[in-house]
Structure formats: structure tokens, C-alpha cells
Design goal:
It contains 17 helices and 15 strands. It is of the alpha/beta class. InterPro entries: DUF3874, VapE-like_dom.
């Protein structure tokens, strides 16, 4: 288009030059028009001059002007605005000179902060902010609309940001001081707790680093006290660095499975505050969630399911000591009774997680071994809530002493016996559930030709005997 305009303007100049040459010429002009007018000077008649000057040249100039206008509209658009690409570049330069922007991969929201206040926390870009950005840009001479600002800030022009990966990748070098142990002994000095808490913290760091792809952090420390006011919940909160406090939650509702999975992909630490409020029937669902590594759910207003890695680890508190109902599943909870009022002074988070990161890089294991899980089960024996069937069984039977006479009982025999004498208390209990209880109590089975049996002694003072 530009070349066409240049060629047309060149042609116009040549035409004007030709006109000047014709006007100055004194040579006779042959032709009927000269003879008819009798022009002694032999110049082109005025009518001819007018024809060239007023018709040919103005038309050419008008055409050139139209082409220039067309070329200008192609560059600036119908409304006279700058070409979209140029306007967006100018808009991007204008905004990034005044603000820092990032796209949060967890919340799927663009966040911003002013460059004049670098210590200010990032805030989510809301509609009011978009309008403000647009007005500022227009005041700066950029003829944009709010949709232009929105299109820019919700595009891949904004750098991605993952809160946990960003935090873990910007930690300082570990100074070699063990800060995990000093944090653990604020709760209890028992070796089982100190060792287990350290292993759990390694699992937290592995989840945040995205390294726990094959084995999730499936154990939850449980802070237990018979009295309130021990600052158990406050201790859970100070485990989170300041930069990651928005990703701590102390409300976890087990009624919505998809909602639970979404929280596992969004939050870094979930505090099951007042753990005893969960019903025994909810424990299987909770233990299943605690073992998940990859989460599959559908986000709001999304047609397809999302497959996201898990980030969250669990911790819990309770004011009741008899909070565990399933002995076989108790390996998922590392219980510790609080010795006194907990020191909730925030630790040096940067060095704390630098230590955990360094230990993981050195090959330290972040998951609990089978032997460690057995130790947890044994350590939790004082925190079991004895089910009704267990209480009835221990009231009626006991294991024999060495060399003592005993009688063989199958699981069905025991179930029928207890069901007959305690029908109300045994409501809802099944033979399978009773069998799992026997295994959890450590009562060994003996294989006979009649099947597996338990060698037991019936108590004489049993009201059912």
C-alpha cells in the first residue's frame, strides 16, 4: 500500500512538471483549437489548462490522499486508535513499569503489587483494579479499553507463579543447625514423637517440592491434651512460613469428597482441629484421602476433570485422649500428649525448610517404613477409644497363661456368643469387624482342620457365662 502511494505521488509530480513546461512553451501549436481561438502566443487554451489543472491533477491528488487515508486506517484502525499490536505493547510497558504481575497456578488468578512498595503483599486483580489500570493507561496517552487490559493480564504474557515451588527454590543455604528437633520437643520429648515428627516434616517438604509423586505424606501428627488452652492450634499455624500462610486451613469438612480433594491440591497444611468431632464412619474416607498422591476432580465451570498433584499434609488437635477407634488404622496418626503450654514463638522458617530440603537432597527418607508404622501403632495404645465389642469381649474372655487350659473359638463362635448375651450393644457389629478387632488386640489364631480358631479362657465372673 505504501509503495502504491509513493508511485502515485511520483506520477503526480511528473504531471505538474509537464504542465509547467507546456505553459512556458512559445512554439506554435498546431491543431484546430489554436486556429479557432487565434491565440497569437501559441499557448494551450485556458480551457485546456483548466482541464489539466482542475480535473487531472486534483483527481490524482485526491486519489493519493484517499490512499494515504486508507494506509493510515490500516495502521490505526477505524477509530483512529493505534494498531492493536502496538497498543498492547505500549500498554504492557506502561503497566509493568508501575506494577509487578504474576499468575498464581494454584488459585488460577492474576496477582499484582505496586513497584513503589516492593514489600507489599500481592493482591488478586479484581474488576475494580482492571478499571483503575485502564484509566491510568488512558491518562498516560494509551487509547485502550478495559477489555484490552483484561486480555493482557489474563494471558501468557504474565509470568507463572507456584507459591510452594517458588518458596522452596528461593531458600538460603542451610547453616547446619538442627531446628526440627528443637521444634518437636515443644510438644513432647519422647523419642518416638521426636523421630516421627522429623519424618513427617520431611514429608511436608517433599510435598511442597513436588517430590512425593509415588508416596504421599500419609501420617498426621495429633496433638492431644486433656485441657484446653495449651495452644495446640497456634502451634500448627506457626509451622507455615509467613509467605505461605494463605495456604493454611483449619476447617476440613469430610462430607464433600470432591471438595476435599481440591483442598489437597490448593493448601499446604490442613489442621484437623478438634479431631474427635469426626465420626468413626468417616475414618475410612479420611485415611483414603491421606494416602492420595494424584487428585482427580472437576473445577467449577470446567467441562473436564483436572489431574493435579497433591500439596497438602495433615496435622490435628484434640482435647480427648480416647480419639482413635480403629487400631489397624491408627498407624496414620502420630499421637503425642502435650506436656505443658506450648511455646509458639515462630521458628526461623527459611533455615527450618532449608534443613529439610538439604536432608531430602542427601537422600533422607520422607515416608514411614513398615517398622515405624508398627511403632506408631504401639505408641498409640493409650489413645484408643475402646469399641463396644472390644469391651464386651474383654469382659467375657482373656488369653490363656502359659500351660493353662483353654478352649478354641472361631470368630463366628465369639460373635454368636456376644450377640446372644448383649444384643443391644452388638447392634451394627459384624463377624468381620470382630475378627479385625481380634487381630488388632494381638490375639493369635491357630490353624486347625476346622479352620482358624482362637485359644481363649472364658472369665468366670462374666455375667454372660
Amino acid at each position: 500500500m505504501k509503495k502504491l502511494v509513493e508511485n502515485l505521488l511520483s506520477w503526480c509530480k511528473k504531471s505538474m512538471k509537464m504542465r509547467r513546461c507546456v505553459g512556458k512553451s512559445t512554439a506554435p501549436v498546431t491543431g484546430q483549437s489554436v486556429g479557432q481561438t487565434g491565440n497569437a502566443e501559441g499557448v494551450l487554451p485556458s480551457t485546456a489548462t483548466e482541464t489539466v489543472d482542475e480535473i487531472v491533477l486534483p483527481a490524482a491528488v485526491e486519489t493519493a490522499g484517499m490512499l494515504e487515508t486508507i494506509d493510515e486506517k490500516a495502521a490505526f484502525g477505524k477509530s483512529g486508535r493505534k494498531k492493536p499490536e502496538n497498543m498492547l505493547v505500549a500498554l504492557q510497558c506502561f503497566l509493568t513499569a508501575r506494577y509487578d504481575f504474576r499468575y498464581n497456578l494454584l488459585t488460577e488468578q492474576t496477582e499484582y503489587r505496586g513497584k513503589e512498595v516492593p514489600d507489599e503483599e500481592y493482591a488478586m486483580v479484581a474488576q475494580r483494579d482492571l478499571n483503575t489500570f485502564c484509566l491510568e493507561a488512558r491518562s498516560g496517552g494509551i487509547n485502550c479499553w478495559d477489555k484490552d487490559v483484561s486480555r493482557l493480564l489474563h494471558s501468557r504474557k504474565v509470568e507463572n507463579y507456584h507459591p510452594f515451588l517458588h518458596y522452596m527454590s528461593h531458600l538460603p543455604q542451610w547453616d547446619g543447625v538442627d531446628r526440627v528437633t528443637s521444634l518437636a520437643v515443644r510438644i513432647s520429648r519422647k523419642p518416638m514423637w521426636v523421630k516421627g515428627f522429623h519424618r513427617w516434616m520431611l514429608g511436608v517438604a517433599a510435598q511442597w517440592l513436588g517430590q512425593a509423586q509415588d508416596c504421599a505424606n500419609a501420617v498426621a501428627p495429633m496433638l492431644v491434651s486433656r485441657e484446653q488452652g495449651k495452644r495446640k492450634s497456634s502451634f500448627c499455624k506457626i509451622l507455615m512460613p509467613k509467605e505461605l500462610t494463605p495456604y493454611y486451613i483449619d476447617k476440613f469438612d469430610l462430607t464433600s469428597e470432591s471438595g476435599c480433594e481440591q483442598k489437597l491440591s490448593l493448601f499446604g497444611l490442613i489442621n484437623m482441629d478438634e479431631f474427635d468431632k469426626y465420626r468413626a464412619g468417616q475414618m475410612p474416607a479420611l485415611k483414603n484421602l491421606m494416602q492420595m498422591t494424584t487428585l482427580t476432580f472437576r473445577r467449577a465451570h470446567r467441562p473436564a476433570f483436572s489431574h493435579l498433584p497433591r500439596i497438602a499434609s495433615f496435622i490435628g488437635t484434640s482435647n480427648m485422649t480416647d480419639l482413635l477407634t480403629d487400631p489397624t488404622g491408627s498407624r496414620r496418626f502420630l499421637c503425642a500428649e502435650v506436656d505443658g503450654k506450648i511455646d509458639c514463638t515462630p521458628p526461623d522458617h527459611a533455615q527450618l525448610f532449608a534443613q529439610l530440603k538439604a536432608e531430602l537432597a542427601g537422600g533422607e527418607r520422607y515416608w514411614f517404613s513398615e517398622e515405624e508404622e508398627k511403632e506408631i501403632q504401639h505408641s498409640n495404645r493409650n489413645f484408643y477409644k475402646m469399641p463396644a465389642e472390644q469391651e464386651l469381649f474383654l469382659r467375657c474372655f482373656r488369653m490363656p497363661q502359659e500351660g493353662e487350659l483353654s478352649k478354641p473359638y472361631t470368630t463366628t463362635d465369639l460373635f454368636n456368643y456376644l450377640q446372644k448375651h448383649y444384643p443391644a450393644a452388638m447392634r451394627g457389629v459384624t463377624p468381620n469387624r470382630l475378627g479385625r478387632m481380634m487381630v488388632a488386640l494381638g490375639i493369635q489364631r491357630v490353624h486347625t482342620e476346622y479352620g482358624n480358631v482362637y485359644r481363649l479362657v472364658k472369665l468366670k465372673d462374666s455375667s454372660a457365662a
